[in-house]
């Protein structure tokens, strides 16, 4: 069992692992790992008890500073497990505070200077080693005295949600082709402070944002519809806390230009939240698409906006057929789908199964990249509509199918032209019987019907 000759009193807001370093230093150890095991250092850095009683009993494991209320898409715990330090706190009292270990801290409120998490000389990440408390770089080949970072660029008035946004934007900048996000427990490795600073510049300087987006678009494969070239941008914008950043308008401007030919289908792994937008389907419909082999849900146990989805299969199928002259783009024939109550999911399944012949030519978005002949589409829609045996439909759907207003439909119901569903109660005004709606639509000049009532 670890015993210490000198047990220093903990300092105000001293973080557990910083206390352990100071105890090792005061007891003449050369390395923290000569006093406790690396796994114990690791535990302390995560605010867990180390198992070394002599340390655990004196320090506080209070974690209220961690800002658990801020949902950060990159990691579950908003706590840096590698050191982030204020040089003056260290020089004054050999102290690394809990507060500074929050993922969203970037300057010391006491000394009004920026924190550092890498050595300004060798640029290596600082680690929990004894030289840290002596104000020196922890990389053995460097070991130089740590110095302050000149010219802070971040305004100290940034809110924590704002810093979380900067961190995320910095992550996107540093990650090649970020098409989906996976929330890990702890954010490791690269300098968090550098990510925050780069992210801040990115979100506030329009020129940088535009350059990044242009690079994304050049990299993307013209095999996919144009809307797929901005998956990274869409994902970033969806994941931000604030949409008031100066760069946002530049990010959400749509671009049009398609030139290159491409024969291979690169894999596209993105999140369900983005996939449903790109395919114009509802989140729950992704399951049906998965079962038909059109997309692949990577985590089948759970379907949420963040679930990873692989989309390339759909395009492997679609691209087997070229556009023929009689075909028109689907985006110009959507009224046929609406009229016959056909969802995009039903249509995609029909296309991939060969029930409906189609051609593919990448354009602005998916709907404008799929081509079908109006006759085939109409025949397919009519048949599918006929085969449907759903009894009750919502009033909203009835409005879409008939082109009548809610008021007119209610009038028809009161006149008993539209029957009430069996289980009708006055509180359930929002349902009609599907067959009635079809009959109504088949009546000649049904628009005049409501006028007579
Ligand atoms: Zn300080
Ligand atoms: Zn160094």
Short description:
The chain has 453 residues and is mainly alpha-helical. 39% of the residues lie in helices and 6% in strands.
Name the helicity range: 25-40%
Low-confidence stretches: none
Strand content: 5-15%
| Mean of residue pLDDT values | 86
Q: Using only CA atoms, what is the Rg?
A: 30 Å
Number of strands: 10
Largest sheet: 3 strands, antiparallel
Shape: elongated
Keywords:
10 strands, binds zinc ion, about 450 residues, mainly alpha, 21 helices, 3-stranded antiparallel sheet, 4 domains
Please specify the SSE layout and strand pairing:
Layout: H1 16-26, H2 38-45, H3 53-56, H4 87-93, H5 98-101, E1 107-108, E2 113-114, H6 160-174, H7 192-204, H8 206-219, H9 231-239, H10 248-252, E3 269-271, H11 272-279, H12 286-291, E4 296-297, E5 308-310, H13 312-318, E6 328-329, H14 334-339, H15 344-353, E7 359-360, H16 366-369, E8 370-372, H17 374-387, E9 392-394, H18 395-402, H19 406-414, E10 431-433, H20 434-442, H21 446-452
Antiparallel strand pairs: 1-2, 3-5, 4-5, 6-8, 7-8, 9-10
Helix pairs in contact: 6-7, 7-8
One zinc ion binds at residues 119, 121-122, 124, 137, 139, 142, 144.
Protein model, in words:
- The chain is mainly α.
- The chain has four domains: 16-134, no CATH class; 160-250, no CATH class; 269-387, no CATH class; 393-452.
- It contains 21 helices and ten strands.
- The strands form four sheets. It has a three-stranded antiparallel beta sheet with strand order 3-5-4.
- Helix 6 (160-174) crosses helix 7 and helix 7 crosses helix 8.
- The longest helix is centred in the middle third of the chain and has 15 residues, at 160-174.
- The mean pLDDT is 86.
- One zinc ion binds at residues 119, 121-122, 124, 137, 139, 142, 144.
């Amino acid at each position: 069992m670890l015993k210490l000759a000198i047990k220093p009193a903990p300092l105000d807001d001293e973080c557990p692992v910083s206390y352990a370093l100071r105890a090792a230093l005061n007891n003449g150890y050369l390395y923290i790992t000569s006093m406790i095991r690396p796994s114990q250092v690791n535990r302390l850095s995560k605010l867990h008890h180390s198992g070394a009683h002599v340390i655990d009993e004196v320090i506080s494991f209070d974690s209220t500073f961690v800002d658990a209320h801020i949902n950060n898409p990159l990691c579950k715990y908003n706590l840096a497990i590698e050191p982030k330090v204020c040089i003056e706190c260290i020089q004054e009292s050999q102290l690394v505070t809990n507060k500074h270990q929050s993922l969203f801290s970037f300057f010391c409120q006491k000394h009004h200077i920026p924190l550092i998490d890498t050595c300004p000389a060798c640029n290596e990440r600082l680690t929990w080693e004894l030289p840290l408390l002596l104000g020196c770089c922890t990389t053995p080949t460097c070991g130089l005295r740590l110095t302050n970072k000149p010219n802070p660029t971040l305004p100290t008035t940034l809110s924590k949600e704002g810093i979380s946004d900067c961190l995320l934007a910095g992550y996107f900048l540093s990650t090649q082709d970020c098409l989906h996000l996976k929330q890990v427990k702890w954010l490791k490795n690269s300098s968090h402070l550098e990510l925050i600073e780069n992210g801040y510049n990115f979100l506030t300087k329009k020129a940088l944002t535009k350059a990044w987006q242009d690079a994304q678009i050049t990299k993307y494969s013209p095999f996919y519809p144009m809307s797929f070239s901005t998956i990274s941008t869409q994902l970033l914008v969806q994941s931000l806390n604030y949409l008031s950043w100066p760069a946002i308008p530049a990010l959400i401007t749509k671009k049009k230009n398609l030139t290159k030919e491409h024969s291979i289908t690169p894999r596209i792994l993105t999140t369900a939240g983005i996939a449903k937008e790109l395919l114009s389907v509802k989140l729950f419909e992704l399951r049906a698409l998965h079962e038909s082999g059109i997309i692949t849900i990577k985590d089948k146990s759970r379907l949420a906006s963040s679930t990873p989805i692989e989309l390339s299969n759909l395009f492997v199928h679609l691209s087997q057929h070229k556009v023929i002259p009689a075909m028109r783009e689907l985006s110009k024939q959507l009224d046929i789908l609406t009229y016959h109550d056909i969802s995009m999911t039903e249509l995609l399944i029909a296309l991939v199964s060969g029930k409906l012949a189609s051609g593919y030519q990448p354009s602005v978005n998916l709907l404008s990249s799929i081509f079908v002949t109006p006759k085939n589409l109409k025949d397919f829609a009519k048949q599918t509509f006929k085969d449907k045996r759903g009894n009750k439909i919502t009033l909203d759907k009835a409005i879409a199918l008939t082109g009548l207003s809610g008021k007119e439909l209610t009038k028809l119901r009161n006149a008993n032209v539209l029957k009430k569903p069996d289980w009708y109660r006055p509180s359930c005004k929002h349902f009609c019987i599907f067959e009635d709606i079809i009959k109504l639509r088949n009546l000649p000049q049904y628009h005049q019907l409501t006028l007579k009532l």
